[in-house]
Amino acid sequence: ATLGPPEVNITSCPNCINITIKLPTSHFRDKGKLLSLIDIYDELDYEITLKSLDGEHKRPRQKTTEEVFSTVIEELYPGRNYCVSVVVTASLNKHSTPSPWKCVSADSEARRGYHEVAVAGAVCVSLIIAAVLKGVHAAGFLPREISLPQTLV
């Protein structure tokens, strides 16, 4: 029997990607109950292939005893697109189908923070300018003939 493909979901985190893997279902039953691959094999090996601009990199093979589990690949370049494919094998069964490629861009913590600060700064500057103009106008420093835009009045 061929194992796989596992179900794979990826989400981005700052300079990393978080991969959630759900083991493929088995077709073996015991007393009518569908057995999981963990029920059958106790533990399984999984191997993640990471694809980016630099090419494909196979990650070291790891073991799992859980049906659903997560792993994080860190130290990635922010804003760069990464794709992953996962293959699951058992010690007694090396026949397996890899998961389809799933892609996501690694987040950048710094860039996101900078964007929020820039927007907040622009809003503050606009409000200060509006307050100064309104104050100058109200104090009579500007001739009354100059009408302020309706939003400032």
From TrEMBL:
Signal peptide per UniProt: none
GO cellular component, one term: plasma membrane
Fibronectin type-III domain location: 2-109
GO-annotated molecular function: interleukin-22 receptor activity
Pfam families recorded: Interfer-bind
SUPFAM superfamilies, per database record: Fibronectin type III (SSF49265)
The name this protein goes by in its record: INRA2 protein
Source organism of this protein record: Melanocharis versteri (Fan-tailed berrypecker)
Lineage per the UniProt record: Eukaryota, Metazoa, Chordata, Craniata, Vertebrata
